[in-house]
Write the structure tokens for this entry.
Amino acid sequence: MLLQATELGLGAVWLGIVSLISEKIEKFLNTGHKLLALIPIGYPLMLNSTPQKKSLKDVVIELS
């Protein structure tokens, strides 16, 4: 689902943390199903807004 959303130019994210408050959400949705995760899907505010990656030498400490 996440890959297909990306292919369609949509933003999506897996929210597994929802299981910590699933009772409240299940009560709100009232479907009778057990909630394990949510995947909100929508149009991102910015396209290609991935953060700049640091170079390897900036994040690795060499031990001598």
